[in-house]
Amino acid sequence: MQQKHHPALSSYRFKRAKTDGLIEVLNEGSYVMAEYSERTGVVKWQRVVLAAQKEKIEKWLGEHYPVQG
């Protein structure tokens, strides 16, 4: 089952990291752009992304990977 992404997210992939509870945000070149913690809901950005895209990515992560409190 493939997840449909918002058009602004179509160039990004989301995958579970080897570290428990972390989701990696990867761009088309497979660079890690950010890491999202399912434990805290915090996104740690590692590369520059447009603010509008950041907002959409953070919202999408929160909806698809709710905090496992």
What does this protein look like?
- This protein has 69 residues and is α+β, with helices and mostly antiparallel strands.
- 20% of the residues lie in helices and 26% in strands.
- It is built from one helix and four strands, in the order E-E-E-E-H.
- The protein has a four-stranded antiparallel β-sheet with strand order 1-2-3-4, with no helix packed on it.
- A hairpin with a 5-residue loop joins strand 1 (13-16) and strand 2.
- It is globular and about 30 Å long.
What is the secondary structure topology, with strand pairs?
Elements: E1 13-16, E2 22-26, E3 32-37, E4 43-45, H1 51-64
Antiparallel strand pairs: 1-2, 2-3, 3-4
Characteristics of this structure?
69 residues, alpha+beta, 4-stranded antiparallel β-sheet, 26% strand
Summarize the structure.
The protein has one helix at 51-64, and strands at 13-16, 22-26, 32-37, 43-45. The protein has 69 residues and is of the alpha+beta class.
Oligomeric organization of the protein chains:
single chain
**Shape call:** globular
- H-E order: EEEEH
- Judged by helices, strands and strand pairing, the structural class is alpha+beta
Strands, total number: 4
- What percentage of residues falls in helices of 4 or more residues? 10-25%
